[in-house]
Design goal:
Pfam families: DUF6517. This protein is α+β, with helices and mostly antiparallel strands.
């Protein structure tokens, strides 16, 4: 006889991206002498309709105040970071349903951070402004990678850089990433004495990070998403008379996830 089962490997049941402080720059330091007025501190403005229609759910946030203090010529610059993080819960529920509850986690994530500077970025001399933004971007990249490493993401590499024009007209600098996340082998009991085993492996993860200036502040936004679909056909013969086939197809669409993240990032203010 021949039996067929729909199943999948056990993707790790933990988020592969903890982004609550993904743009933190706590490694910077400086003095705290006088400064001029700062931009009004507030969380980034998000495209609520896009988030709602896309099945996104708020899962956390963090405020770092001050996140850093640094001397720029005669002026001391300090910054407060306010970050919000969202998960595509519809995708997570779909994957869980398809895998009979064996794949649980956060598969598609989006975050946005407003960096409020004191003095406002618009009040920092032109000669120093670029250096401040560059430092924020460099530290955001470092923290982004550290967050991935903390949840067992491996082989993290910058796969390229580029730019995008956001809806408010500014140009954002974009860094793209590739990585892999491990999953453990999974065993299906077939009989009291026989087991069907799918060996552990890795799954590709892609990410992106965008940084741009807006109204005297710096905005950082990005996310992570599955970098490949997972399809697998495994056949085993536990006895001479029995053949078991396991067909796996999660129907993941990396290009669509990336485009969705791009649209969310572009709409952040």
């Amino acid at each position: 006889m021949k039996g067929e089962e729909d199943a999948t490997h056990s993707i790790r049941r933990r988020t592969y991206l903890g982004l609550a402080a993904s743009a933190g720059v706590t490694g910077l330091a400086g003095c705290t002498s006088g400064s001029t007025a700062s931009a009004a501190r507030a969380p980034p403005e998000l495209p609520e309709e896009l988030l709602e229609s896309g099945g996104w759910e708020y899962i956390g946030g963090q405020t770092l105040d001050p996140a850093f203090e640094q001397s720029v010529g005669p002026v001391s610059v300090s910054a407060a970071f306010e970050t919000v993080v969202y998960e595509d819960t519809e995708l997570a529920a779909e994957i869980k349903q398809k895998t009979l509850g064996q794949a649980e986690g956060q598969f598609l994530l989006f975050f946005a951070t407003r960096v409020t500077l004191n003095p406002s970025l618009s009040n920092i001399p032109d000669a120093a402004r670029g250096a401040v933004v560059d430092q924020i971007e460099a530290q955001a990249r470092t923290q982004y990678k550290q967050q991935l490493e903390e949840v067992d993401v491996t082989n993290i590499e910058q796969s390229g850089t580029g730019s995008m024009t956001v809806e408010t007209g500014e140009s954002a600098r974009v860094t793209n990433y590739t990585a892999t996340v491990p999953f453990e082998s999974i065993t299906f009991p077939f009989t009291e004495e026989q087991e069907f085993v799918i060996e552990g492996d890795t799954v590709d993860v892609n990410g992106l990070l965008a940084v741009w200036e807006h109204d005297g502040t710096v905005l950082v936004a990005g996310g992570a998403y599955p970098g490949e679909n997972f399809e697998l056909n495994v056949t085993d013969e536990p006895t001479d008379a029995i053949e078991v086939a396991v067909d796996i197809d999660l129907g993941l669409t990396p290009d669509a996830y990336r485009e969705e993240l791009h649209e969310l990032i572009k709409a952040v203010e």
